[in-house]
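Re: zinc ion structure - here you go.
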Amino acid sequence: MLLAIETSCDETALAVFDVAAFLNGERRREAVLRAEIVSSQVALHQPYGGVVPELAAREHLLNLPPLVNGLFENARCTPADILGVAVTRGPGLNGCLLVGISFAKSFALGRKIPFLALHHLEAHLFAAELGDPIEQLEYPSLALLVSGGHTELILLESFRKYQVLARTRDDAVGEAFDKAATLLGLPYPGGPALAQCAEAGAPGAFEFPIGMSKDETAFSFSGVKTAVLREVQKLGERIGDEKVRGDMARAIEECFVSTLSEKTERALEKHRPKSLILTGGVAANTALRASLANIASAHKIPFRVPERRWCTDNAGMIGMLALRIIEQDNALAGHWRGQANESSLAEHQSIGSLPRWPIEHLHL
Ligand code: KG4
Ligand code: ZN
């Protein structure tokens, strides 16, 4: 088995994967992903309207030991069954990453088993494999990765070879959702609240500008934030009116969805990938899922989007990426097949966190 750990932001997430079964060709999800847990810290950070890094790190530290015990119970395994650990190395909040990495390293060192330190965004891409059955990504593929910290269009050229075609100049789209929601007086976390509010809104009541509309290498969302702020100030007390708020939420969501969709479609026409992937926390957004599904369908390529629980941060995606790495690495695969290979076990112990880690620098 493999223990997967994700603590890069405000979710303490763990999963246990049956590596041996996967290497033997098992692809039923429940047979490979044996147990999974995500402990959200939303309630802890709510009073501050955002994630407080020090509190998040402390919470991970308190959470991990009891969560691991519960996870092993659910997976009906013991620490002795774990033959390797995979953990998020970055990007993310440094204190949070360090808690996960230290935990993973200690566990691996104590048991003399391999330790894999992985890229959070690369793992978000592999969440798209976590269907039932588990299905390998096609290459080349185009991915729109949208979360609280990232907005990137990524071309997956081949296994672990990425080209970033576009990224945000300012706010990530998840962050823009959250900030706009705060301006509308919606509760934290704002993205899902704004999306829910938009469902009741009428189209066309407000209009917000699309940033960097001509530049195919950049997204920009900070202009929308300013425009929303102006509109809210203009409306004064009327922003408390549910109808007005719904209409405004609808316009904000439409602006974000059409910006993302337009650039994705342009990249698709230029690079002609074999499939379109949508992933990251904002991939949970219903309007965005529908829009990209339409684009993929118009271009007659498969659309791959994880189920919602694997869009936001989770450890399933970390384990899924680890499975693909193990599968391609003779020493690691041999280790899970019972062939001892001491040299590959100890080499990762000097690895530290990488809070800023562009995906282009994956192999540096
Ligand atoms: O991937 P994620 O869980 O964490 C990061 O790595 O950032 O993404 C969290 C982001 C937050 O900004 C949250 O507001 C946004 O995803 N989000 C949504 C929805 N669900 C989560 N945004 C819009 N609509 C949603 N339904
Ligand atoms: Zn994430």
